[in-house]
Amino acid sequence: MSTIIGETLKNIPWEDRPEGRGEIVWRYSGNPIIKRDQIPGANSIFNSAVVPKDGAFVGIFRSDNTAMEQHLFLGKSDDAINWDLDEKPIILYGKDDKPIGEACGYDPRVCFIEDRYYVTWCNQFHGPTIGVAYSYDFKKFYQLENAFLPFNRNGVMFPKKIGGKFIMLSRPSDNGHTPFGDMFLSQSPDMEHWGCHRYVMNATGWAWTKIGAGPIPILTTEGWLLIFHGVCTTCNGMIYSMGAAILELEEPWKVKYRCKPYIFHPTALYECVGDVPNVTFPCATLTDAETGRIAIYYGAADTVVGLAFTQVDELIAFIKDNAL
Which pLDDT score, from 0 to 100, does residue 177 have? Predict the structure, then answer.
């Protein structure tokens, strides 16, 4: 049986699969857990990252205001369901310890590596690219150099060095809404100089338009469990669903298994109606190694935050049984 290699998280948010239902990933009955106007002046709050810290939980939340400006906000929670969000954006600091300004951008991920929390997000540098910052305590955030040239999105770190290097997944893109997109991997000795690029996988099947890494990959006995978003373009626009794959442990650009069907798809009203209809965009997971439970945080219709659940052994078996 496949298991998670990692920490026990006894207070992971959880709700059993509804009786009589067969979904491999199922929704929290109290969705959405974050409303679109939970921050004063917000138009929407979505595509956000959550991590455990000191027995509670911390999150970095994307919020677009009513001028449609994109900023990152800090949030805290005792149960990872009910959140208190700061009313002002995160302030970034430089290496000289002087403030740079507010954290502007979108779709953050948070990854703890060694002694600090790294935040990656879609930053603006003559077009979208991957911004990088770190914090020891979520009180002060220090910005590093952007990881890549524009145009790039969906920068997702692995939670440990591999071969002595930091590892990041990303999707090279264009300056628009990216009508294409395969997944790549890059490596760095110091979180500022990135190279040794590797191809990971392409947009195909139900995700024929583009794909992008979602939450931080989960270390399991089978390999790295990667939940990603995939997009298909229809006569009525794009549909963002969730897919899953297993990557090799020591060479994570090599795909062991990739699930042919999607594992989660926009069907609930709050996923289908909003600023961008038909979107389920995963950005974070919480995991409990003891029970194998996984809680998935996702943006719904680019408007609110939803929560879903799965069991690691069931999900990995589903991936292997339904591999491309």
Answer: 86
- Say what the pTM is: 0.98
Sign of CA dihedral 166, 168, 172, 173: negative
Give Cβ neighbours of residue 298 (< 8 Å, ≥ 6 apart).
Answer: 47, 214, 242, 264, 280, 281, 282, 283, 305, 306, 307, 308
Q: Classify 270 as helix, strand or coil.
A: helix
Query: DSSP string spanning 144-200?
Result: ---SS-SSEEEEEE-SS-BTTBEEEEEEE--SSS-S---EEEEEESSSSS-EEEEEE
Check residue 261 and report its DSSP letter: S
d(CA 249, CA 212): 19
**Residue 294 to residue 14: CA distance in whole angstroms:** 8
Residue with tokens 């943006």: 299
- What backbone torsions phi and psi does residue 189 show, to the nearest 5 degrees? -80, -15
CA-to-CA distance for 323 and 245, rounded, in angstroms?
A: 9
CB 130 within 8 A of CB 141: no
In which band, very low, low, confident or very high, does the pLDDT at 248 lie, cut at 50, 70 and 90?
A: very high
Instruction: Return mean pLDDT, the chain.
Output: 98
For residue 45, what are the contacts with CB-CB under 8 A and spacing of at least 6?
A: 34, 35, 36, 37, 38, 39, 61, 62, 63, 73, 85, 304, 305
Residue 122 confidence (pLDDT): 98
Alpha helices in the chain (DSSP H): 269-272, 312-321
Q: Quick one: DSSP state of residue 123? A: E
Residue 1: closest CA among 266, 312, 301: 312
User: Tokens for 78?
Assistant: 């005792």
Q: What is the pLDDT of residue 173?
A: 95
**Computed from CA positions of residues 221, 19, 25, 299, in that sequence, does the dihedral angle turn out positive or negative?**
negative
How many Cα atoms within 13 Å fall on the side-chain side of residue 189? 0
Residues 285-306 have pLDDT tens digits of: 999 999 999 999 999 999 999 9
